[in-house]
Amino acid sequence: VVTLPNTTSDKSKDTWKSKTLKICTVTKKGSNASPKWRLNGLKKGTCKLRATASATTRAPALHQTVRIKVK
């Protein structure tokens, strides 16, 4: 289990979603005001995560795919 960040450097709230549910899942614990995101590896392979965050006055919205190797 790995804890994922819940905010960007600009303090915008992150949202995480697994795109490879057979390799990994993402769960949210806690309230919407202060979520704790956890990555759970299920089997070996490449886990693809979709990270999103709202735009702020200092940064555009975030929409990025992250790949993590599960061993």
Describe what this molecule looks like in 3D.
- By secondary structure, the protein is mainly beta.
- 0% of the residues lie in helices and 54% in strands.
- A hairpin with a 6-residue loop joins strand 3 and strand 4.
Outline of this structure?
This protein is an all-beta fold. 0% of the residues lie in helices and 54% in strands. It contains no helices and six strands.
List the helices and strands and how they pair.
Elements: E1 2-4, E2 14-18, E3 24-29, E4 36-41, E5 45-53, E6 62-70
Antiparallel strand pairs: 1-4, 2-5, 3-4, 5-6
Largest sheet: 3 strands, antiparallel
Helices and strands, in order, run as: EEEEEE
Number of helices: 0
Strands in their spatial order, largest beta sheet:
1-4-3
Q: How many individual β-strands?
A: 6
**Unreliable runs, pLDDT <50, ≥5 residues?**
none
Note the overall shape: globular
Quickly list its features:
71 residues; mainly beta; three-stranded antiparallel beta sheet; 6 strands
